[in-house]
């Protein structure tokens, strides 16, 4: 039995290592963008977003309001506000698989939910959530994962 | 030989083999002083020992022990070599860690742990083909979901009414 003990300990360590990966955190990048049809300024870091949305919408100006790296833990909501707190996006990591994270996202204006969604985010994929209006345009959230 | 000679004979052999106690040796020596028959018996034993001892000693002097050991080594080397499979089996038999009663439970434990771990890690739907958006809802506005699969971009767009536009910045 004494000889089996190190083997069992080793296997347990491997088991805990893999489960810790399975239930670990997710590093995400959230960019808060204001898009409008006034002017024609496009932040250099937003050319990818402009390229994707250019065929769908007629916005000519893209301005980066925030660029945050967020570490999401399971069932712990993280909130980011825009427009001085009037519009809030709240993200919650629901499940993390090896290469896919299930995120629950809530967008609220003045404390009232205007959008609820759940997405599966994988590395290399970007999810753009847009539409909440501001006086001179709309807010777009560009969400991507890094894990 | 006197009547007591029969009992002395056993002690005489013990004395001859230097196995007798001090008391037994005194008894034998006392008897030998008086008994010619036992003296003859002792001389016979000494003669017999001399006959045996001298040839053995001569043979030992002639014998070359290093040469004997070389022969033994040679025979060991000439023994048939084990195949690789027999070598592995011999090693497994020798290594206590790999005794069957040890490695069978160990392997079973490893298999169970790997199975459970794999279930946890690999337990996911076929995501490449699955939709990125599991659900989306808005009680107040229309929502559009658009996948730009080539660019790996998903767009969720909320169509807010004109009243929200009036909110001051």
Describe this structure in words.
The complex is a heterodimer of chains A (147) and B (169). With 147 residues, chain A is α+β, with helices and mostly antiparallel strands. Helix content of chain A is 18%, strand content 52%. Chain B is mainly α. Residues 165-169 of chain B have low confidence and may be disordered. In chain B, 8% of the residues are buried. Chain B is rod-shaped, with a radius of gyration of 50 Å. In chain B, a hairpin with a 4-residue loop joins strand 2 (142-148) and strand 3. Chain B starts with a helix and ends in a 10-residue tail after the last strand. Among the domains of chain B are: 5-62; 84-122. The interface between A and B is large, with 49 and 47 residues. Strand 6 (112-121) of chain A pairs antiparallel with strand 1 of chain B, so a sheet runs across the interface.
Spatial arrangement of strands, main beta sheet of chain A: 2-1-8-7
Q: What is the C-alpha radius of gyration of chain A, as a whole number of Å?
A: 20 Å
Percentage of residues assigned to helices of chain B: 55-70%
Largest sheet of chain B: 2 strands, antiparallel
Q: How much helicity do the residues of chain A have?
A: 10-25%
**Helix run count of chain A:** 2
> What string gives the helices and strands of chain A in order?
HEHEEEEEEE
């Amino acid at each position: 039995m004494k000889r089996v003990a190190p083997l069992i300990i080793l296997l347990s360590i491997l088991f805990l290592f893999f489960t810790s990966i399975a239930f670990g955190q997710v590093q995400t990048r959230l960019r808060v963008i204001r898009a409008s049809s006034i002017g024609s300024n496009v932040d250099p870091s937003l050319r990818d977003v402009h390229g994707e949305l250019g065929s769908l919408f007629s916005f000519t100006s893209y301005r980066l309001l925030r660029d945050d790296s967020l570490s999401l833990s399971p069932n712990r909501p993280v909130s980011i506000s825009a427009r001085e707190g009037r519009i809030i996006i709240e993200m919650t990591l629901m499940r993390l698989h090896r290469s896919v994270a299930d995120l629950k996202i809530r967008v609220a204006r003045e404390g009232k939910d205007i959008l609820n969604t759940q997405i599966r985010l994988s590395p290399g994929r970007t999810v753009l959530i847009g539409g909440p209006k501001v006086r001179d345009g709309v807010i777009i959230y560009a969400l991507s994962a890094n894990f | 030989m006197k009547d007591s000679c029969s009992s002395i004979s056993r002690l005489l052999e013990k004395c001859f083999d230097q196995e007798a106690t001090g008391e037994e040796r005194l008894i034998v020596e006392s008897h030998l002083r008086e008994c010619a028959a036992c003296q003859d018996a002792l001389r016979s034993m000494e003669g017999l020992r001399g006959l045996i001892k001298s040839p053995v000693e001569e043979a030992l002097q002639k014998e070359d022990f290093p040469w004997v050991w070389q022969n033994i080594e040679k025979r060991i080397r000439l023994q048939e070599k084990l195949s690789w499979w027999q070598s592995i089996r011999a090693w497994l038999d020798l290594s206590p860690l790999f005794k069957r009663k040890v490695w069978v439970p160990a392997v079973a434990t490893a298999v169970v742990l790997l199975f459970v771990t794999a279930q946890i890690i690999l337990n996911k739907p076929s995501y490449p083909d699955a939709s990125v958006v599991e659900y989306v809802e808005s009680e107040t506005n229309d929502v559009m979901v658009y996948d730009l699969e080539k660019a790996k971009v998903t767009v969720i767009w909320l169509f807010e009414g004109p009243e929200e536009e009036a909110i001051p910045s």
